[in-house]
Amino acid sequence: MRGWTADDIGDLTGRRAIVTGANSGLGYHTALQLARHGASVVLACRSAERGRTAHDRIRAAVPDADVALGSLDLADLSSVRAFAERHPEPLDVLVNNAGVMALPRRATADGFEMQFGTNHLGHFALTGLLLPALRAAKAPRVVNVTSGLAWTGRFDWKDLQGERRYRKWAAYGQSKLSNLAFTAELDRRFPELTAVSAHPGYAATNLQQTGPRMQGSRLLERVTGLGNALIAQPARDGALPLLYAATSPDVRGGACYGPRILQYRGAPTEVVTPPQAARPGVPARLWQVSESLTGVSYED
């Protein structure tokens, strides 16, 4: 049986999408395919230079693509607010893709631990600030990009930001578990939109090498680069679960989509997620903490 591919995406003419982290990897290929199928796409990127390069690559591949570049730094809530203010138009699809992985401990502009602050809090704030634009669309959808490593995560409510003890992989797992819990609560609170999660399996992107590079470990950087070359699937294939979650009429609110083969590679399908992400009380508690930290309050 043939698996779902980007060729199965329907006509998206008239639909508007925002993809965070669209300058490379999963975000780039997600934005490319959305534009290829007729959507108006905003590339929300931290680096203007890399964003412009991505914009020009998409226009070269799809000459009639309706793509625009937007400045967004998810590690700075003032940037998140400014971006949302610049994009008030009805929004059909929001793909919360940008992220960082396994970094040495760093703080965001607002003092949050970088992985929790970027991967979860930045997207939580962005989605809340774009909620009026989403509600103005006919059938809005939010896709939160998680990871198979969410299975390694746990919520340490007494030390969510690793101030007492910081372990970079534990922090990453917790941030990706947060993406799932956020999805569950967003879908529960707002039935007028569809909130889903997606993850790429093991896909070759820049994400794996950023942490070792920041840590100054050339050996680990080379090892992760070798793993990307020999084991990982290409980023264009890793983007398929994101695209399925963003466009398929068959998606189920609150569900997660990932690769069919052991959640590692292959065509997208609905996948099992860590039960603690939806454990009673957990999504609501994370929501309350997130509103308090970001100052962004969703109006039910």
UniProtKB/TrEMBL annotation:
InterPro entries: NAD(P)-bd_dom_sf (IPR036291), SDR_fam (IPR002347). It comes from the Bacteria. Pfam families: adh_short. Belongs to the short-chain dehydrogenases/reductases (SDR) family. Keywords: Oxidoreductase. This is Oxidoreductase. Gene3D superfamilies: NAD(P)-binding Rossmann-like Domain.
